[in-house]
Design a protein that fits this description.
The protein is built from three helices and ten strands. It is α+β, with helices and mostly antiparallel strands. It has one domain: ADP-ribosylation fold (Alpha-Beta Barrel). It has a three-stranded antiparallel β-sheet with strand order 3-6-10. Strands 5-8-7 form a three-stranded antiparallel β-sheet, with no helix packed on it. It has a two-stranded antiparallel ribbon with strand order 1-2.
Length: 117
C-alpha cells in the first residue's frame, strides 16, 4: 500500500493518511467490509481490549483490509498481534468509515465490544 499520493498533474505529493497537522484529504464516507484488521504490538493488547482503539494524536484509527497487512503493521511496533474489527457491525450501528487512496480504512474510534483477538 502506498503511503503517499501525487496530485493529478504529478507536481505535488502528500501522505495518504496519518498527517500530524490538520489536512483536508477530501475523504468520502464508505461502507466497510464486514471485517477489518488492526496490527499492533502485544504490549498494547490489554489497554486496547479495555479502552478500544483510539486515534490519540492521529486524525483517525487505521485499519487494514487483510490480516497479512495488519501483521506487517504490528511488526513495526514489537511482537505483533492482529485484531479483528467488526466493521460491518460498527457501520450498521452508525460509525463512519473512510477508505484512503491506498486502501487503508479510517474511523474515529473502535470501541472494545467490536474488537476480537
Amino acid at each position: 500500500m502506498e503511503r503517499i499520493a501525487f496530485s493529478e498533474d504529478g507536481t505535488k505529493i502528500r501522505a495518504s493518511q496519518g498527517h500530524s497537522i490538520e489536512v483536508d484529504l477530501d475523504y468520502q464516507t464508505a461502507r466497510p467490509p464486514a471485517l477489518l484488521f488492526h496490527g499492533t504490538a502485544e504490549r498494547f493488547l490489554q489497554s486496547i481490549l479495555e479502552q478500544g482503539l483510539q486515534k490519540r494524536r492521529r486524525h483517525h484509527v487505521h485499519l487494514s483490509p487483510d490480516a497479512e497487512t495488519a501483521l506487517k503493521v504490528g511488526q513495526r511496533h514489537g511482537k505483533p498481534v492482529v485484531l479483528t474489527v467488526q466493521s460491518g457491525r460498527m457501520y450498521a450501528d452508525g460509525y463512519v468509515f473512510y477508505c484512503s487512496a491506498n486502501g487503508v480504512w479510517l474511523t474515529d474510534e473502535v470501541p472494545p465490544n467490536y474488537i476480537g483477538v
